Amino acid sequence: MNLKVNETGVFEILLWSDREEVVFLNVTSPKELLVTGFPDRVKLSKDSGDEIIVLGESYRNATKIAFFVKPISSGSLNFSVRIFSVSDLEGLVTKKEIVFNFFVNSTEPKFEGSLNGDSGFLDIEVEQNYIMLLTLVFLILLTSFLIYKKS
Question: CA-CA distance, 144 to 139, in Å (whole number)?
């Protein structure tokens, strides 16, 4: 994903399960990349979810998890999401784990106009000078007219 510094983007993943289980999420990211908006744990089951996906010829309920990312400096940044669960099926303890790696390329925003911010000040100054010049020309014409009329 390409983002400008301080611009927010969204990565989404879908999680589903054939049985009821709780999965835990752990995000690792550099300090130059803020990652927010995700829960610490998600309860999954075959009957719950906010999305429907097709796997082969069957439909499954899936839960969408959104990760909001905001780079605070430019460069190539990445973060990983580790999702794991531990379950006990009739005395057999199983552990599932998957890691998603996401990549963000961030650039500095491009400025339009002056980089030092003086362009607005300059416009006001030029406008004030223009008004003063018009006022001066008007006063000269008025004075000339009055002198001409008196003589």
Answer: 8
The CA distances from residue 20 to 39, 46, 55, in Å, are 17, 7, 18
Q: Which of 19, 15, 42, 14 is nearest to 88 (CA)?
A: 19
Q: What is the CA radius of gyration of the chain?
A: 32
Tokens representing 132 are 């003063």
- Interstrand relation of 21-28 and 41-44 (parallel, antiparallel or unpaired): antiparallel
Residue 122 is predicted with a pLDDT of 46
Cβ–Cβ < 8 Å for 23, 84: yes
Query: What does the pLDDT look like over 9-36, one tens digit per residue?
Result: 998 988 888 888 888 988 988 888 888 8
d(Cα 151, Cα 149) in Å, to the nearest integer?
Answer: 6
Q: Is 115 left (phi over 0), alpha (psi -120 to 50) or beta?
A: alpha
How many C-beta atoms lie closer than 10 Å to residue 82's C-beta? 13
Report d(CA 141, CA 148) in Å as an integer. Answer: 10
d(Cα 139, Cα 2) in Å, to the nearest integer?
59
